[in-house]
Task: structure prediction
Amino acid sequence: MHLAIAFSVLSTVLCTMVPQVQAIRSGVTCERLENPIEMAKQRCLCTPCHVCEYNREKKSCDFIRDNGIDLTDGSEAPSVQPTLEASEWFLTEEELTKSRRGVPRSDLQVFTTGNKVDVFPAGDTFFASVYQDVERSSADDTIYLAAWSTDDVPFDPINDPTGTNSSFKSIMSRAVDRGADFRALVWRNMLEMKQNIKMSDAINSLPKPV
Result:
């Protein structure tokens, strides 16, 4: 307790001695933390803590001086366009057969061309698109899900933050009620086992397609 109080007092004194912005380099800005509580929580006086520290000589925030430290954010590095050759991204027939322990897979192509692709720059646009697509599903549709993890999250958190109408369970339940066939292939995620078991039980409890 005494140490925390002493740290807070010292932090308050130091804060009055330093300007708001102390150092800028390649997109990284060292700034002082104004709140003593934040200083105690983050255990530093200057942010970002992993590259900034309080310089006693300058009496201001500055970059941590260490041999070999890289303070750049990479903005000056030239971008490199990845190869667009499909053959460089996908396995060949021989590689596929080898991965299947010698069992050939002759009923599918290794890759296809001319596909329609939707690019989502952020997660909210992706979930909004899925939400709209699932809500439009009918008895003639099949919904496939391949996931690393699942949870009963709202697909429209801006308009429905509690997930009353847009939660995973609610939208899939409505889709199945309309006659859509919903199938999921979810990885056995041991890190989030409880929530995945709960969602697995919820998915398996949905009525089977007719």
Summary: The first strand starts at residue 21 and ends at 25.
